[in-house]
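Note to self: keep these together.
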Amino acid sequence: MDIFGTILAPFKWLVSAIMIGFHDGLSFMGLPPANGWTWTVSIIGLVLVIRAALIPVFVKQIKAQRGMQLLQPDLKKLQDKYKGKTDQLSRQAMAQEQMAMYKKHGTNPFSACLPMVIQMPFFFALFQVLSGITAARQTGIGIGAMSHEQVVQFDESSIFGAPLSASLLHGGGGDQVVVWVLSIVMILAMTASQFITQKQIMAKNMSEEAMASPFMRQQKMMLYILPLVFGVGGINFPIGVLIYWTTTNLWTMGQQFFVIRRMPTPGSPAAKALAERRAAKGLPALPILGGKKADAEAEAAAAAAVIEQKGQRPQPQRKNRKKK
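Structure:
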C-alpha cells in the first residue's frame, strides 16, 4: 500500500462504516439490500453525518470570513505602505505586520477553506471505495468496513439502470447511455450548485470595501476555476461520488442561504435587506456575529439608512451646555 493509501485507510473504513450503518438500517426497515436507491440514500446519509459534524467548523469559517472582510481596509493600507518595495527586508516586514494583523483580529486567509479541506480526505476515501468495488468483488475481498457480500450487493445495485460504481469516462456495466446521461446531469448539477453558492455570497453577502479588495479579485477567479476543475474531474467520478458531492453542495447552498438571510455580513446588501425587513416589522436591529465595534457601526448605519429612506429622520438630541 502506498503512502496516500495508508493515510486514507482510516477514512475509507469510517466512510464505509457510516454507509453500512445507514444501509443496514434501511434494509431493516424493508428496503432491498442490493437496491441502488438503498445505497444512494446511504450515501446521502453519509453527507448528512459529515456536514452535521462540520457545523462548528462552519461557524468558525463564518467568523473568519467576517474578520477578513473587516480587515480589508487595513490590508489595503499595508499594501500601499510597502508598494514598490521589493527588497527582502521590506517583504519580511510586510509579512510580519500581516500576521500580526491576522492574529489581532483572530482570522487568517485559510480559515475560509477549512470545511473543504476537512472534507477532502472523506471525498478521496469515498472515491477509492466506490472505484474499487468491481475489483474487490473479483478478488473476493471487502473494502474498508464493507464485507465481500456487501461489496457484491453494491456492485449489483443501480439507479435508472446505471451502476453506482460506473463513471462517464470508464463506464462500469449497465446501460451505457444511461450512465453517460446520468453522469453528465450529475456533473452539471455538481458544478452549478457550487457556482451558485459562491455567486450568492459575492453578490449579496459582501460589503463594497470587500468587493473592491485585491483578495476579492482572487475570489472572483476561484468562482470560475473551482467549478471548472470539479466539472472536468467529474468525468472520472463514479456516480456514487457525484451523488455525494452534489448533495454536499446542496447542503452548502442551503446553509449559505440561511446565513445570508439571517446573519449577513455588516455593510453588505443582505445586511441592508435584513435591516429593512426588521424595520418594517418594528423590530430592533440584531446583534452581529463576532461582536466587533465595526460590525455594530455598520448595522447602525444600515438601520439609519432604512429609517431615512422611509422619511423618518432621527431627531437631533439637544446637548446639555456646560454651566459657566
